[in-house]
């Protein structure tokens, strides 16, 4: 694609198309905030809790919180590496960026523990002890998959069978052992994916800070690139898993984030190249 851009279009046109594509991805990621909020508003109605403490809200809306924080963090990386000139990354501008980034970091770590809390919901289950159809009309729901519930009616209760289980951490929710196992695995992948992204941004933060403080050594850059390759492969594996499991929103969101971080990595690479060139003058 680089050769096509170089030889097929004028440089200005290529740059405009690149920026358009980049900001389109950023806009789609921002739109996902609403999709996750819609999904979590529905699943929150099945939570077996009357607590209103902060951690409970974080657990119920961890994907929404996570996406908001990551979108803000993504925009900060874009500003710092591609929009704001280096000589203006000082004083109030620098402190404002650092302050917002700190808040985003706290939100992302909080969301990680929220994912962990959601995963633990599926650690425990007990046999229903009766025919599931006996519960019709009493407000029970059926867990179809992670964050996916349907009312317990004639159709859904007959599909449950007599091996149905109750999930104590949810409010009047039954499931088949297969659906419970699937939700458990999807919750685990959420935890792994969230933790992996945290490690990615830590590495990027270290690179940006070192670049501002005098440059990145070749040895550190090699180690960082190797680590990031492993982390990005892990994230790609999570996206593929969600795709095969039919979790389209998670797959779509993960694919967009990987695409977005290609732009961030290119920004950082170009930024480092420019600084190295300036240093030789």
Note the total helix count.
Answer: 9
What letter string, H or E per element, gives the SSE order? Answer: HHHHHEEEHEEHHH
Q: Averaged pLDDT, please? A: 82
Low-confidence stretches: 1-10
Gap between N and C termini, in Å? 31 Å
The side-by-side strand order for the widest beta sheet comes to 1-4-5-2-3
Overall 3D geometry? Answer: elongated
Largest sheet: 5 strands, mixed
Q: What is the rounded Rg?
A: 23 Å
* DSSP helix fraction: over 70%
Q: What proportion of the residues form beta strands (DSSP E)?
A: 5-15%
Question: How many β-strand stretches?
Answer: 5
Number of domains: 2
The secondary structure category is mainly alpha
Characteristic key phrases:
281 residues, disordered N terminus, 9 helices, mainly alpha, elongated, 2 domains, 5 strands
Structure in a nutshell:
This protein has 281 residues and is mainly alpha-helical.
Give structural notes.
- This protein is mainly alpha-helical.
- It has two domains: 2-124 and 178-280; 126-177, no CATH class.
- The protein is built from nine helices and five strands.
- It has helices at 2-8, 11-44, 54-60, 62-83, 91-120, 154-160, 177-212, 218-244, 248-280, and strands at 126-127, 141-145, 148-151, 165-166, 173-175.
- The chain has a five-stranded mixed beta sheet with strand order 1-4-5-2-3, with helices on both faces.
- The chain starts with a helix and ends with a helix.
- The relative contact order is 0.11.
- The model is unreliable at 1-10 (pLDDT under 50).
